[in-house]
Amino acid sequence: MKNALNYLCASLFVFITSCQPSGEVFADATCIENVAVVHPENGLIENQTVIVQGEKILKVVPTKDLQLSPENKIIDGTGKYLMPGLWDTHIHFAYIKELAPSMFDLFLGYGITSIRDTGGEIGYVKSWKDKALADPQNAPRVMIAGPLLDGIPNVYDGSSLARPPLSVGLATEDAITKKLNQLDSLGVDLLKAYEMLTPEQFAQITKIAREKGLKVTGHVPLSMDVISASNAGMNSMEHMRNLELSCASNADELWQQRLQLLEAEKDSAGGVLRSKIHSLQREVAVKNYDDQKANEILKVLAKNETWQIPTLALSVVTTNKHFEKADWKESLSYLPEAIEERWLKGAQDYNQLEITDFRRQYSDWMINMVGKINEAEIDIMAGTDTPISLLTPGQSLHEELVLLVKAGLTPLEAIKTATVNPAKYFNLQDELGLVQEGMWADMILLDANPLENIENTKTINAVIKNGKFFNKKDLNVMLKRASNPVK
Predict the structure, then answer these.
(1) Residue 225: which of 248, 204, 208, 206 has the closest Cα?
(2) CA dist list (Å): 85 to 125, 198, 217, 440
(3) Which of 138, 235, 231, 227 is nearest to 192 (CA)?
(4) How far, in Å, CA of 466 to CA of 224, rounded?
(5) What pLDDT is attached to residue 22?
(6) I need a labelling partner for 406 at 20 to 30 A (CA). Which of 7, 21, 79, 131 fits?
(7) CA-to-CA separations, 225 to 44, 61, 190, 237, 297, in angstroms, rounded
(8) Could you tell me if 79 and 449 are in contact, meaning their C-beta atoms sit under 8 angstroms apart?
(9) 298 touches 378 (CB < 8 A)
(10) In this predicted structure, what is the pLDDT of residue 486?
(11) pLDDT number for residue 135
(12) How confident is the model at residue 213, as a pLDDT?
């Protein structure tokens, strides 16, 4: 009888324990099982399980090494690819203010989890940064520069729709010091120098920036050449702006001509004068391109670690014609109706532009130069200048990645420009840019391998922002909401 009772108890114990769920349980977590992780530096790491708990990544381990209890919230990652969230490192909230309320949803809907605003009135752009900080799971991370720091006359002076008041014109040393102190006190993440500054003003900006621990990005001032700007402390260049003027065999002659024009026409409107100089010199410079001179410049940029944000989607817009592509046309349905109508008209206007030999030559020059910059091991960041030139927030970053690959980067190198590199630029490499334990959980789940075809960054299955999971249905709701945002 005693043996029978012992047998019964043992059998009951085996039965009960066999009914208990086996495996490890992670409370309040999302577990993505058996997924291929895209590491922007090392490539593809297959068969991984990624545990997201709270706002951060708790674990990344081989699936074979971790048995999950079915009590967990488990997402089957079989056949899918998990990569870090993307950055667009050149955007403008203030360029089309009626579009700004839609931009958070547009960015997140397309997997852009961090952005860098490169110019706008400080109170306005700071309001968007503050909104993002107040609700980080439902907004991209926002870094701001404040207004373009320009000389006199300043370019973006509010004189037209094409030149909204994105800049401040700074006439004196005292004005520069006061403005930079104000921007620093308001918490800008970097400064942006612009084209009408004098060399002395530019040097003052970079000096104060160094003292405050701020990076200086921008356009090479028309009064300077690229090497002088880099040596003076320019940390990064947007659009490779005015690089072509320094790469010409007659660069010194062009520089002297610019100095004369800047002095003779200093009472002109800044935007008009800048456009005149570009019209006079850009084509001449590209047609007199000197490869040896370009290589000398690139060596200096590499030595000084002057990063590049090419914004190819903007620079080659007339030849690339992104507005003829299906994904751009789809993105229009997510814009407020008045902007959608305006952009459709804008696309028609672009299509009527004559594609001159020089436009083709300039586009080719831009594409080829990005390839040379990459070969020179100068760090590149992906940015678009959205919403300028009909570039849809979010969607345009994927177009930029395609163009970077066209310029000679591998898909992995292109992904690095929108993940690891921006994190490193802002000294956030221990927090962002990788699918790695301890990092903020900013990620994109894809249905196809982006390393096989960069276009596959568009196959978004889900987006995770600070640990919050948005599936396809959520993303569709988000994108549709962008067309009628809460103001």
Answers:
(1) 248
(2) 22, 38, 23, 10
(3) 235
(4) 42
(5) 82
(6) 79
(7) 41, 50, 22, 12, 10
(8) no
(9) yes
(10) 80
(11) 98
(12) 97
Q: How many residues would you count in the chain?
A: 487
Q: What is the tens place of the pLDDT at every residue in 163-213?
A: 999 999 999 999 999 999 999 999 999 999 999 999 999 999 999 999 999
* Interatomic CA distance for residues 208 and 177, integer angstroms: 8
One-letter amino acid of 330: E
Among candidate residues 34, 14, 132, 140, the one with its CA nearest the CA of residue 79: 34
Euclidean distance between the first and the last CA atom of the chain, given in angstroms as a whole number? 79
User: Per the structure block, which two tokens stand in for 244?
Assistant: 């072509």
Each residue's pLDDT tens digit, 236-291:
999 999 999 999 999 999 999 999 999 999 999 999 999 999 999 999 999 999 99
**What's the pLDDT score for residue 18?**
45
CB neighbour class for 19 (10 Å; exposed up to 12, middle 13-18, buried from 19): exposed
Q: Is 392 exposed, middle or buried (0-12, 13-18, 19+ CB in 10 A)?
A: buried
If we measure between CA atoms, which residue out of 92, 81, 85, 93 comes closest to residue 113?
85
215-218 vs 190-193, strand pairing mode: parallel
Cβ contacts of 205 within 8 Å, gap of 6 or more: 149, 176, 180, 191, 193, 197, 216
Q: Which residues contact 113 (CB under 8 A, 6 or more apart)?
A: 85, 86, 87, 107, 140, 141, 442, 443, 444, 463, 465
Q: Are 396 and 352 in contact (CB under 8 A)?
A: no
- Rounded to an integer, what distance in angstroms lies between the CA atom of residue 292 and that of residue 287? 15
Q: Phi and psi (nearest 5°) for 325? A: -90, 150
Structure pTM? 0.94
Q: What is the CB-side half-sphere exposure of residue 186 using CA atoms within 13 A? A: 23
pLDDT-flagged residues of the chain (< 50): 1-2, 5, 7-19
Distance CA 151, CA 277 (A): 16
What single DSSP character describes residue 358? Answer: H
Rounded to an integer, what distance in angstroms lies between the CA atom of residue 126 and that of residue 118? 12
- DSSP assignment of 236-281, as one string? EEETTTTHHHHSBTTHHHHHHHHHHHHHHTTTS-HHHHHHHHHHHH
